[in-house]
Amino acid sequence: MISESISTVTGVQSLQYLYPLIVLGIAGFIILGLGLATSSKKAYAGIAFGALAIAAILILLIPQNASFVLSNSFAYSQFGAYFAILFVISSLFIVLPSLKNISAKGDIFYALLLFVTTGMIVAAFTMNLIVLFISFEAVSIGTYVLAAFHKTRRTLEASTKYFFTGVVSTSFIIFGLAFFYQAAGTFELTSALAVVSKPALLIALLFLTIGFGFKVAIFPMHQWAIDTYYGAENSVSAFLSTGSKLVAFMIMLKIFIVGFSTMGEDVFLLFTLLAIFTMTYGNISALSTTNVKKLFAYSSIAQAGYLILVFSITSYALWSGQNYGLIAVNAVAAAMLYSLVYIFMKGGAFVFLNTLDKENPEFSDISGFARKSPALALSLSIILLALAGIPFTGGFTAKFYMFLYLVDAKLWWLAIIAILNSAISVFYYFRVIMYMYWKPDSGVSLSGSRIASATVIVSAIVVVALFFYFPLFSLLHGFAQGLFGVTG
């Protein structure tokens, strides 16, 4: 639970905590106003990129002590600041690559991206379930529009499926929050929960798992993700599979680790089954597809399975009476590292598709790609190796820590299942690499997008650098304590 050491900040002092939100909000309205005078997409993108960069700097400048502001609606900590930075990175990731395919209404696209990022940051800095819900729905509504932005039949279909799935998931979340309040008597995740009704809390657990399971694309609530990632524009797919997914995952960390800390056995059984089915389904399904974009979509589902292993670790340590504090902080730190690497792995993979002239390439379309662009082929290969968890990449480091703490929590059998799933993924990732290097030229040309190409290359460099930045996990261990109300 959150410790009593958290301070309360009121009055003028609280304004500094709102600077990132103010900057993004003002920049969004400036872009909308600019849209009345000019149709320059580069101007919109430049303002959006600058605003996001300034917001990131302002987040870093926020005092690192855990603090409550605005009548305890916001709880600022290193944990929240870390995820806020990740959300800004996920938005920065697509600002420039999006220029390739935006044909009209660029002002609306970039303003909406800033408003969505604002909602993500609010979610990062609150432990109140009502504020979490409102900010998360603001993010969801914005992403519905982004998914349909190009108004082609394919993107509209993708957005429609995403929207109706989102409505269903929202319904489950609302009911889950209602039962949570009935059981705990509070919407504050920072309070020591005095559970009045365990059956009500169990119903809340099931409803909230289903609701957020849709958002993170956990099996069996995953099918919308395949259709939406496949149908949306590549940059939007990159954002949906990284920023949008990670904000839901971060909220799950807050709710299921802090809010359900009295139900270790139930959380463990539920999330262990979901993790096994999710990563297995994603990996097995990816083996049979011949479409590169669908492969990335199925891979995203498998990655969600690895991410939610953190709930198995923390809940089992609580249920089995182990050293919960240390194991939980280690597991959350591993999940935070995985989230960082995931942005560059999955984002880089989807943005790679913007370097091709074909929107949804088959494997045959990337045949001989290494002869057309050796640097891009090498960069994508590094990203795919990282997704598979091959050494000398950040993907290996992320999986290593996650699997290590499975073993540390005496869940070695679950670690074996996860490792076997990683081994399965090697086959379909290497299949893509094989087509690029050892198959004859397909004739599909490059799109000429230097920005998309640079983004993929930078992603590969970052993925490798994260393997060699050894102090990172110790740093994240301190940040993870913020989830439990302890300053690092």
Keywords:
488 residues, mainly alpha, three-stranded mixed beta sheet, 3 strands, disordered N terminus
- SS content category: mainly alpha
Strand order of the largest sheet: 1-2-3
DSSP, total strands: 3
Percentage beta strand: under 5%
Count the domains.
1
Instruction: Give the helix proportion (percent range).
Output: over 70%
In sequence order, what are the helices and strands, one letter per element? Answer: EHHEEHHHHHHHHHHHHHHHHH
| Major pleated sheet | 3 strands, mixed
Count of individual helical segments? 19
Low-confidence stretches: 1-12
CA-CA gap between termini: 15 Å
Q: Tell me the radius of gyration.
A: 21 Å
Form type? globular
| Mean pLDDT over all positions | 86
Structural commentary:
- The chain has one domain (7-484).
- The chain is mainly alpha-helical and 488 residues long.
- The protein contains 19 helices and three strands.
- It has helices at 15-34, 41-61, 78-95, 106-124, 129-147, 153-184, 198-216, 223-231, 234-259, 264-288, 292-307, 309-319, 324-352, 369-372, 374-388, 394-408, 412-438, 450-468, 472-480; strands at 7-9, 67-69, 74-76.
- The longest helix is centred in the middle third of the chain and has 32 residues, at 153-184.
- Helix content is 72%, strand content 2%.
- Mean pLDDT is 86; it is low at 1-12.
- Helix 4 packs antiparallel against helix 5 (129-147), helix 5 (129-147) runs antiparallel to helix 9 (234-259) and helix 16 (394-408) packs across helix 18.
- Strands 1-2-3 form a three-stranded mixed β-sheet.
